[in-house]
Amino acid sequence: MDEGRKPPPKRKQPRKVSPEYLERSALHYLERYASSSANLRRVLLRKVQASARAHGTDPEEGTRWVEDLLARYRRSGLLDDKAYAEMKAGGLQRRGGSTRSIRQKLAAKGVDPDLVEQAVGGLEGAESGEADLAAAIAYAKRRRIGPFRVERPGREGEDPRARRDKDLSAMARAGFDLDTARRVLEAEDPESLL
């Protein structure tokens, strides 16, 4: 080995799981992140599986401990998938997330499809069908595209059609339909969108 190079750091061995360790891990995780029941289950079961591989602990017993813990947290209100879905959907919309991307992200976190639909239905502008428009405006503002574009020196000669196509592509990747993207991007100024 090269004299100036250090050997790679040793991988830390996983801890042996116990009900107390899982409880501490769950509370530590919930202090740092909002979570759905399914997501917390995944996090804790990874610890159970790692402990089973490293220490030979019983993964079925660890799974029972995780399920008991989740049931207790749901009863106490520490885990509430409905509140989580509403909070997450609102935050994603404020950041410019389309309803399509919000549905996908909540489903990826293991939220029940009925709760996902309730959360998306409760978004600002959902009753009037303007939820995606509000999110598209927030997205365009955050990305500084369309009417929110600030011209930078040296870009005066840029082809407006190429720039528009690039902006449309960004809106499509974010999950917005063509009509909504065009409505936002073709606005003369931000005030005309409101």
From TrEMBL:
Ranges of Basic and acidic residues composition bias in the record: 150-168
Coiled-coil intervals: none
Cell compartments where the protein resides: Cytoplasm
Gene3D superfamilies for this protein: Winged helix-like DNA-binding domain superfamily/Winged helix DNA-binding domain (1.10.10.10)
Gene Ontology annotations of biological process type: regulation of DNA repair
CC terms in the record's Gene Ontology section: cytoplasm
Primary localization: cytoplasm
Name of a matching Pfam family: RecX_HTH2
Domain RecX second three-helical, chain residue ranges per copy: 80-119
Annotated segments matching region Disordered: 1-20, 150-170
Keywords associated with the record: Cytoplasm
Keyword Metal-binding among UniProt keywords: no
Position of the signal peptide: none
Domain of life from the UniProt record: Bacteria
Family designation: Belongs to the RecX family.
Role this protein plays: Modulates RecA activity.
Name this protein carries in UniProt: Regulatory protein RecX
